Amino acid sequence: xxxxxxxxxxxxxxxxxxxxxxxxxxxxxLNEFLKNNALLDQAHMTSRTYLCCWKxxxxxxxxxxxxxxxxxxxxQSDTIEGYLYRKYPAIKIARLAVDHSLERxxxxxxxxxxxxxxxxxxxxxxxxxxxxxxxKPESMGFYEKHNFKVVEKYRYSEFPKMYLNMYPxxxxxxxKENLKEFEER
Length: 185
Ligand SMILES: CC(C)(COP(=O)(O)OP(=O)(O)OC[C@H]1O[C@@H](n2cnc3c(N)ncnc32)[C@H](O)[C@@H]1OP(=O)(O)O)[C@@H](O)C(=O)NCCC(=O)NCCS
Fold this sequence. Notes:
The protein has helices spanning 2-8, 28-43, 107-125, 140-145, 167-173, 176-184, and strands spanning 9-13, 48-54, 57-70, 87-98, 130-134, 149-150, 161-165. It is α+β, with helices and mostly antiparallel strands and 185 residues long. A seven-stranded mixed sheet has the order 1-2-3-4-5-7-6, sandwiched between helices. Bound molecules: coenzyme A. Coenzyme A binds next to strand 4, helix 3 and helix 4. Coenzyme A binds at residues 25-27, 30, 96-98, 103-109, 133, 135-136, 138-139, 141-142, 145.
């Protein structure tokens, strides 16, 4: 399916208009959240959910919230020398799931890239350098495949914390002539 995925797949903000009742991933808590809590959380301004629709079906979803990441949690290569605070600003992927009937077709990757794109957009307006996720242990490989790193301190916790440093991605997207100016800011 992956070859034809892009022309049929859409990311849309969750609203009351969409019936997600048939969505079913392998994790009951993630199904419950989408059906019973996502809209309410949105109304309370505590999270934002986006649906991934494929051929009029809810193929998956992700939920974003604001977050912070301890300076000590990130690898030396991802830190900022001389940073003055204890925590970095971040965006958290609070939930991400694909309908089990559609797993392993590239939809998870599509959703993750959409979430990263949204976080990069936020970073244009609000300081924000990392994307975090409290992964399910069985999904760590999925995030590692997309360059997330595990925070060693939490590697063996129930939901190991992982992060992606957006700085190199954003730097690579800048035209070369602007890079020096960008780094000097
Ligand atoms: C984890 C999940 C989102 C992956 O979605 P998916 O649509 O099956 O993933 P994709 O087909 O896009 O896979 C992209 C790549 O990641 C790999 N991958 C997918 N799931 C993986 C896993 N659990 N462990 C290791 N690698 C995984 C795929 O093999 C593929 O690799 P490739 O580039 O070499 O082909 C999905 O299995 C899911 O919803 N699981 C239940 C809920 C969950 O665990 N959510 C994440 C927790 S926060």
